[in-house]
Each structure stands twice: as C-alpha cells, then as structure tokens.
Amino acid sequence: MCGIVAYIGHRQAYPVILKGLKRLEYRGYDSAGVALVNHGLHVYKKKGKVADLEDTLVGKDLQGSIGIGHTRWATHGEPSDRNSHPHTSANGKLAMVHNGIIENYAPLKQELLNKGYTFASDTDTEVLLKFIEDIQINNECGLEEAVRIALRRIVGAYVIVIVDQDHPDTLIAARKGSPLVIGIGKGEHFLASDASPIVEYTKEVVYVNDYEVAIIRPDELILKNLGNERQTPFITKLDIELAAIEKGGYPHFMLKEIHEQPHTIQDCLRGRMDPAAGTITMAGVQNHLQQLVNAPRIIMVACGTSWHAGLVAEYVFEELCRIPVEVEYASEFRYRNPVIHHGDVIVAISQSGETADTLVAIERAKEQGATIFGIVNAVGSSIARQSHAGAYTHSGPEIGVASTKAFTGQLAVLTMMALKIAAAKGTIDVKRYQHLCAELAAIPEKVAAILQKTDLIKKIADKYKDARDFLYLGRGYNFPVALEGALKLKEISYIHAEGYPAAEMKHGPIALVDDRLPVVFVATRDSYHEKIVSNIQEIKARKGLVLAITSENDEVIPTMADDVFSVPEADEIVAPLLSVVPLQLLSYYVGVAKGFDVDKPRNLAKSVTVE
Ligand code: F6R
User: What is the 3-state secondary structure (H, E, C) of 365-423?
Assistant: First the structure.
C-alpha cells in the first residue's frame, strides 16, 4: 500500500508528482504529501486525499525540479497530518517517503531515543530516516552509503525515496518487497509505485529489484546492491496506453471497469483460444505441461477476490483435470508449515502481482521445491517475476479499489488452463472440450448483453439499498460467486453481507432470515438447479426477500422470487463469468445510492503490500 512518486529533471516536479499521486490514490488515501528542493527543502503534507493537499497548497512556493510525493495507507500511526509523509531528518535536510513496514522499528527507535533523538510522528518511516541520518553522522559517510548500511539492518518491506537539500541533483531510492518503477526520459527520471504516473512521459522503464539501491540524477541511473556492487539496469518497454488509466466518460473507474469486461475477457482469450481449430495456446502452460498433467496436487494461493477465483478453479480443475486442488488464503498458508509434496504445483493468483502475503507464500513454497505458476494482471509485477511460469490476464490497469474485470480475467485464464491440461491428460472427451471452448468464446458477447440491462439492476439496488444485512447463497460453481458478491457489497456499500453455500444455510444462517433480510440467490441453470429451487422455497417460507440471478428462460424461480435478474444461458463451468456481473453492478449502484466514494472505499487500498 501507499503510493510513491518522485521526479528529477528539467520540468517543474510538483505538477508531475501531483498528477502521479492522483493516479496512485488507489493504493491509499489517508493522507498525502510532497517535498521539493529549491534553495532549501520544502515539505507539505495533509491528512485526507490528494485533492485536500492540493487545495492547501494554492499560493505556496512549489518551485523545484526535484521532488518526492506520497499517498498513504496508514499502518504505523493513525491518519493525521503529523503521520503523513514525507518525513524529515533531525537536521531538517533530508526528506523521505516510504511504502511498506519496518518490522524491527521498535528496537531501532529505542536505540535512537537513547541517543537523544526525538520523533514528530508515530511512524516506522521516521525511525528509518533518523537511523540513516545517525549512520551518516557516526560513519562520516555520504547518504548513499548510509542507506546501504541501514538497509542491511532492516527487517520488513520497503520502497524508500530520499531527497537531500545539500544534493539537489540526486535522488536515492531502494526497494525490498514493495514495487518501484523508474521511468527513463531525456535528461529526467520518474519514479513511482507503478507505471501509471510514468506512462505519459516515457515508455522505457526499469523495475528495481529487491535489495537494490538506485542513485538517480537527471542524466544518470545507477543501480547497486547492498554490497555496493553495480547492477545492470534492465530496461523494459511499457505496453499500456494513457487512455487505459483514465475514466473515459464513466463517473467511476469501477463502473468503467465493469463495462470493459466484454473487451477484457476477449483480450484474455485472444491469441490463445481458437475454438474453430480446438486449440489453446498458452506458452506458460505448454512449457510446464508434463509437470501440470502429472501434478499430484494443485494448490491455489491468493487473497480476497483472487481467492474466490481460485475457489471457482478448484471446482473446474477437479471436474475437468481430475487433479486434487486446495485453495489457500496466502496469509494463512505462509505462516503455517504447509506440507508440499514433490511435484505439487502452486498457482498464485493476483491482480496487482504485489500482494505481500501472496508474494511471501510463493517464496516459501519455492524454498520447498514447488513449481509456481502465476496468474497475474500487472505485467512485470513482483509475483509475475517470482513465478517459474505463468499467464497474464490482460485485463488492463484496474484502478477501482474493488476488483471486477480482473476477476473475470482470472476465471478466463484458469478455465483455459484447465481445458488445456485436461486435453493433454485425456480427462475430457473431444466433444466436451470443443463445447467448453465454444462456451468460453461466447462469454464476451453474453457479458455485453448483461450490461445492456444495468437499469434493472439500478432499480433493484434502489429498492434494497437501506437493508442492514444481506445473505448471498449459491451452490457448486456459483458458491464462490456468492462469496464474491457479498465481498463486493461489503467493500463498496459498507452493508454487512455474508456468502454461504446455499445448502449450508440450514445449519445456522437461516436463523437470520426475516422479512427485512434480502437473500441473493446465484441460481443460474446447472446440475444443482432443483436443489437451489428448494433452498429458495425454504427462504420464502420464512418471509425472506429473494433476489435471484437466474438463467434466461428459467420459468420456475421467477414465480418464487421477489426480484429476478436473468443472464444468458451458459454451461455451468463458465457460468460464474456471467453470474458475477450483476452482483458487481448491484454493489456499485447500492454504494452510489448511499453516496459513498465507490472508487475509494474507506479503510481499503488497492494493492495490499503490507503483511
Ligand atoms: C476485492 C479486492 C481484494 C483483492 C485482494 C487481492 O475487491 O480487490 O480483495 O482481491 O486484496 O489482491 P490481488 O489480486 O492484487 O493479489
């Protein structure tokens, strides 16, 4: 979490940093700040969103062609002006921004307190900066060397960027465990937590690796490891366009991203699946096909929405490939002592590719000899780079904090992967394989048809927006969709919502049902259909309000439900790609009706790079 932007070159730094921070607000919006060097160090910071900072800076001296900026998701210390970044050194000459957590900050702080340092904030960041300053004084060394010495003693994750008023031609940055991209311009450099603040200035970027320190001047980029050895910067070309990270006429990124799904799913299938020829081309799967086909077990590791995609995949892989699948929360898996057998394949699923728990989980699994297959959206991200093989979801930048198009992209990749493995393993017959390829290929058009009916969902959202609680129920492939629907509603509308397997409801949650409880049934036509019809009757018998997501032409459920939203017919294996879309829209419209900032829900951040 937290977004970092920095600039050094021939332009005014402030406008570049401000625009970049606005693009990175999805990473946190508890406070924002900038530090500029121009005949001295000028630091401005404010609790609240980047726009609040901008308002307070009208009329201030914002000159300078070197600067750093930060948008914060609070970890150590409540959101407040004093805990905002940048933090400054005791001598007032250095300013630093930080993304991550310094785990051993407490003993370091004690050491510094004993030496007489005082602290203006509750943050681990200020501790690290003063620790660096102290090393500089004791060792009589330059900032670069002091940073390297300090970082060798740091436990935790960080990206830091430091400006020094005595050296207004140099930025010092370093990374471990959190992302840092450096854009290379002509006589200028741009630093950011992801490429979105950089893409309009340059397409040439360097992704800084863990344990690297960057010394950046307008015309020079030097990378070193913590042992002071020069590293060769590996320059890659960005393939995102500016339009992809702007709202394009939609009131919110979330709505834009929901509506992009016909295209993003198509982009995910494009060049991979050829339903006419019956082929699926996925280099990452092909290169590890024997390992995947012979895997005694697949373990899906992910968090949040990506974990829900893993749950759908569990059903799909077990059905089609006959490989046992376990789905693990990365945050639990990494702290356990999980049993990993020879040949097990770990599938790590992540939109951002930077989720700290998922990243560490795969590092642990790698140490035990597992093969890691990454399913990631953000190209060049840490999880993509840490995986042995993988497949990108090609969903484009996802800016809205609630994940939507990345989820359907993950489902599309996982389904293609399962089909390819099943075909190689001989666990699927040709007819079913071809049928499922055709069903998957038809999804983009069917999602487009669902999006034609947003007005109906909006009406339903208005009707239920004041409910205190929601229950989401589904069976089989639609059970994870019920979990995802409940998560979306919680995030965006702050309404308590629970997802459950529909049959499990009888074992407890049914006690919640009364005439004020909306129960959302994800009940598209599948092999469980009759069973879920019975579950709907059980809810109606207790006067619950039923909102059903059904398949078109379902004649039974509409006679029982209070409200119905139908989606096109589809094979049950690909049905979650459709049934989730009205649930995304429902949460969006409930959130909007309640007047909340759906792109920046409270307490959340897009990329959870803390553990
Ligand atoms: C929910 C949401 C989160 C993420 C989770 C994992 O809308 O966005 O639950 O799914 O933080 O993030 P990634 O997929 O980036 O690893």
Answer: HHHCCCEEEEEECCCCCHHHHHCCEEEECCCCCCCCCCCCHHHHHHHHHHHHHHHHHHH
